Amino acid sequence: MKIKDIMTKEVKTISPDMNAKEALRLLEQMEISGLPVVDQSGKLVGMFTEKDFLSYVLPGYIQTVGKFVYENNPKAARKKVAQLADMQVAQLMRKDVVTVNEDAALCEVARIMLTQKARRVPVLDSAGKMVGIAARCDVVKAMAREE
Question: Domain 3-145, what fold?
Fold first, then answer.
């Protein structure tokens, strides 16, 4: 089975100049964890996710320090959340996005998701245009149905 057989074809996207707070609100309303970011020509330029938001709000040294205790609702985090109103998606989005070709096999997409720690992958056609998106749950469901 190919990824084009199971991908979501009607994909909600956002623009890089969208307000970051509005984009975060959109994730919440749609009950999803990330959205592709496309420019005016429809070219994929990034991915905006809850993880990008959390990475911005929490100190950069969290990777080094690992697990430690945060005080309840720290002032620095509240300040950064408030700053979202003055930021664009382009300032927070991840620019290095893992993508797959629409003819990629399901097992190959699963391998890419595992090795690249990707929860979702935009699907591109042979011209590089985004034609869909596949979430990890979509791949798992499709693989479980295959016999």
Answer: CBS-domain (3.10.580)
